[in-house]
Recover the amino acids of this structure.
């Protein structure tokens, strides 16, 4: 395995965790220095500007949040600044050692509609990453929501959201940030910058997903022609539906909801595979087929005044 293109990162941002059952944590905020509203806006503005200008950030702007609520506030501030339509969300697992200190087992990041791509089997898709920042690709099952999930007596559960799912697809999350050290800084940083998301590719539909056991829904990834990881839907604890259930509850707490047509990138299955512009990658999914990726560098976005 190529360590450069397929290293397992300390704070990976791709795997959902759990079975949809809510786990409550209590966080002790004594001695925590919360971000001010000015700091929240300044952090968000720095990430938004760096993404728009396709330039790297040397350090985390202002200061790192100390609680996830502040990181979510930064993410919300960034969404207000960009004004982009949200096409869906990615779900990520918080590392086990940090779940109690951060009072969370997972995290989420938005997927801008402008970064969502669809393709058929055997297609080649161009994906853009921050050339001087962090960049990786992750083979993931992508859920398309058919109708808004509703909570039951036990809240949102994997079984409860099943009927709200229209389809599940082979897919790729493009994980990229203008800050090279984002993943190394951990979930508090990752949440601030779009959950380290730079796009999602929604590939061919997984046939018969409702009736097939997760262990046979296998996945494989290659980078630069070399095998770098294998997995299956069982690689995601709780499965894709568990990720959707958690996300529905998380968004409800933020005053948001999942709606028909939204997509959910449910978690990496073969690893977090670091890439750079000029490389190629390929993912293959049982009962769907595969597709190829060509990695390119992000370009500065044109301002509205220039359009």
């Amino acid at each position: 395995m190529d360590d450069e293109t397929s290293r397992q990162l300390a704070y990976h941002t791709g795997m959902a965790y759990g079975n949809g059952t809510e786990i409550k944590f209590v966080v002790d905020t004594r001695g925590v220095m919360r971000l001010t509203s000015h700091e929240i806006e300044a952090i968000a503005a720095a990430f938004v500007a760096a993404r728009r200008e396709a330039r790297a950030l040397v350090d985390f702007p202002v200061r790192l949040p100390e609680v996830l609520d502040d990181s979510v506030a930064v993410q919300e501030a960034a969404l207000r600044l960009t004004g982009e339509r949200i096409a869906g969300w990615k779900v990520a697992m918080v590392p086990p050692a940090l779940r109690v200190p951060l009072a969370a087992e997972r995290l989420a990041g938005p997927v801008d509609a402008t970064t969502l791509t669809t393709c058929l089997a055997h297609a080649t898709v161009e994906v853009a990453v921050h050339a001087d920042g962090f960049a990786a690709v992750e083979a993931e099952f992508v859920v398309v929501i058919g109708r808004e999930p509703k909570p039951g007596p036990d809240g949102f559960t994997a079984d409860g959201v099943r009927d709200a799912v229209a389809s599940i697809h082979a897919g790729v999350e493009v994980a990229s940030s203008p800050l090279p050290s984002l993943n190394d800084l951990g979930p508090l940083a990752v949440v601030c910058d779009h959950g380290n998301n730079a796009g999602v590719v929604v590939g061919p539909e997984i046939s018969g997903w409702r009736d097939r056991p997760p262990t046979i829904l296998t996945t494989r990834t290659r980078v630069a022609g070399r095998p770098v990881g294998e997995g299956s839907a069982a690689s995601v604890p709780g499965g894709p539906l568990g990720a959707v259930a958690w996300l529905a509850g998380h968004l409800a707490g933020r005053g948001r909801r999942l709606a028909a047509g939204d997509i959910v990138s449910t978690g990496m299955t073969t690893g977090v595979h670091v890439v750079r512009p000029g490389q190629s990658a390929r993912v293959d999914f049982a009962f769907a087929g595969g597709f190829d990726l060509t990695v390119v560098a992000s370009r500065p976005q044109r301002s509205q005044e220039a359009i």
Remarks:
- The domain at 3-299 is CATH 3.90.850.10 (Fumarylacetoacetate hydrolase; domain 2).
- The longest strand covers residues 165-177.
- Confidence is low (pLDDT under 50) at residues 1-23.
- The CA atoms of residues 45 and 119 lie 32 Å apart.
